Amino acid sequence: MATLLPPPHRIYLLRHAEAAWAEPGQRDFDRPLSQKGFGDAEIVADRAADKGYRPDILISSTALRCRDTAEAVHRAMGETLDVRFVDTLYNASVDTYLEIIDAQDAGSVMLVGHNPTMEQALSALIGKKAMAASVPKGFPTAGLAVIDYAAVTSAWRLVDFVID
């Protein structure tokens, strides 16, 4: 498991919603959400907001599908949500994801990013066995992992997984 220590006390890992297929000549980076993806992003964002999940800061990849997903969260959680877009999250390693989280001076951080790195980050935080038990089919598009730091056990644990 990762040695990341608080702050933050809560981490939200949100994989971008389903992307549309690339048009001829279109870069992967510029793929928007599909129609289903737009709907799924709205549903997951609304469910998270209904559960009271609201990060202090949302950090998203600058890829279009991640920006679209982050904007759904922003709409659901309110205009005061601090949203930042970071180029390095696109095609980043799991170490980069964890370093970005670790660099934040906030009680809770949400990352909006890509697979397989999102799945690897969840596994690094909660462990491979817990990951396999919690998300046996892998980290789905528009999936939101809610992870808390348990001071008693000095470990990160998955407390919820929100899907559409």
Automatic annotation (TrEMBL):
Q: Name one GO molecular function term.
A: hydrolase activity
Q: Which UniProt keywords apply?
A: Hydrolase
Q: What class of enzyme is it?
A: hydrolase
Documented EC number(s): 3.1.3.-
Q: Which InterPro entries match?
A: His_Pase_superF_clade-1, His_PPase_superfam
Name assigned to this protein: Phosphohistidine phosphatase
Q: Which organism is it from?
A: Rhizobium viscosum (Arthrobacter viscosus)
